[in-house]
Amino acid sequence: APYWRTNFSDLTPPQPIGDLTATSVGSQTVILRWTAPDNEGKAAASYSIRYRKGGLWPGVWDSAAALATPPPPALPGTQQTLTVAGLDTGNTYYFGIKSKDQAGNESDLSNVQVVRLLSAITSAKVLTNGQFQCSFAGEAGRTYIIQVSTNLTQWQPLSTNTIGFTNSTFVFTDSQTSGFRQRFYRSFQYQ
User: Fold this and answer.
1) Which H or E run contains 169?
2) In whole angstroms, what is the distance from residue 13 CA to residue 9 CA?
3) Residue 86's closest CA among 103, 102, 68, 100?
């Protein structure tokens, strides 16, 4: 009579990753960082790294976009990074990782890292009255916060704008530029 032989010697999946973070965020890129999980003292066999715009949890994992070539897992405790490029400017993404061992056991979903990409400045100019005006690109129908800084370390909210449903940019004018030698601007999606 035919029979199936199954190896039940490894039923333990790798530990879930618990420290997924975004170390650098641009307008279309993010650098993710995490610690390689423990897989009974050795490296896991593979990673599945996925992301979505509308939240990420186990019930939607299979419908999330998967990165085609995630890095191979390192030895447990090793810091790993990955640059994800080609994302949509000004959008919010939810990233997560699962790892798999050599026997095919899959870990639970890592902590989910929420990443708000910066909006891209598409044009900038100083008006004849000394005011600064710029256009930001983002997702139609979304609200964006513009922040200002004089030193690139301390940022203050300056304005909140919503992009209309018929376009993907908004124009911002800073009427408070007098008295400042330099000002820096950034914009990101409001949640």
Assistant:
1) strand 169-174
2) 12
3) 68
